[in-house]
Amino acid sequence: MQKIKIAQIGLNIYSHSTDVFKTLKKQKDKFEIVGYVLPENEKQRLSDKLSVFDGYEELSLDEVLNNPEIEAVAIETDEIYLTKYALMAAKAHKHIHMEKPGGRELCDFEELISIMKKTGKVFHTGYMYRYNPLIKEMLSRVKNGEFGEIISVEAQMNCWLSQETRQWLKDLPSGMMFFLGCHLLDLVLTLQGKPEKIIPLNKSTHLDGVTADDFSMAVLEYEKGYSFIKTTAVEVSGFARRQLVINCENATLELNPLEWYVDGEKLVTKCVLRTAKENWHEKGVTGYSEPCSRLGAMLDGFYKMCTEEIKNPYTLDYELDLYKLILETCNYKGEGK
Fold this sequence. Notes:
Elements: E1 4-9, H1 17-26, E2 31-37, H2 42-45, H3 61-65, E3 72-75, H4 82-91, E4 95-98, H5 106-119, E5 123-125, H6 133-143, E6 150-156, H7 163-168, H8 176-192, E7 197-203, E8 215-221, E9 226-232, E10 243-248, E11 252-255, E12 260-262, E13 266-268, E14 270-274, E15 285-288, H9 294-306, H10 316-329
Parallel strand pairs: 1-2, 1-3, 3-4, 4-5, 6-9
Antiparallel strand pairs: 6-10, 7-8, 8-9, 10-11, 11-14, 12-13, 14-15
Helix pairs in contact: 4-5, 5-10, 8-10
């Protein structure tokens, strides 16, 4: 089996950077980890996370970018730096796996996409629901028209975060919408395409003195109805009712919870499919996904794209459309506005 030489650039404070590196280590039949780079003072800021790199070489950024034998990079900095380092990697003709959704500025992301189109290298982003087997199956069935036209989509991704974490959201455009709402927008855009109109609703609860937007919603207008997303950092046990509801002409699909942990790191998804229009008491058909590893499947997909076993179903144009949609729902105009 061909191995891809890869390096990780950065650590992030609240996302999945250490888990990504652990997963790369587990997939030693696919990836040869050359080393890691800490370009944003992570050694001092995130010293408690450094043990994940034990046994691997710390490299300079130039050593990674200027080494043609290093074919791929995992960009895992804090969100605000993602596009900055992805741009550097793109200019160095690397395959890129990048934490979602990118940095804050549209012009930088547009340049990144433009360069990736020219190089033809893989650009792969860490949206967490893309590799869930049951979510993939249901999205495919809906998009293929099995249940008729889509009328609306409702998606929620809530949690309870500490005061410190919620205040950190101030670094991001509209806080929770940028941080976790991006995952929901990925689902809606995949199903329905670009909305006709967007109504962003981002707010700070001011609980515990937090001034960041820790409560976010958005309404997206489509031809047949309105789709709705909600993401908050102040919902007790919010993880347990993260959900996706797809209302179609001939069926309603309710995936709830979107993910639930079993067997330690593995996750399952529950889906209820209801098709009876007149029987208001219909229980529907309930199905569960096989337990799966979110990041295991994600990085396996990235590997197969790098080796040209599969094509990325998420095109560069789609990634740009998604990023623009995220900024619109954040009501972000650029340069801190």
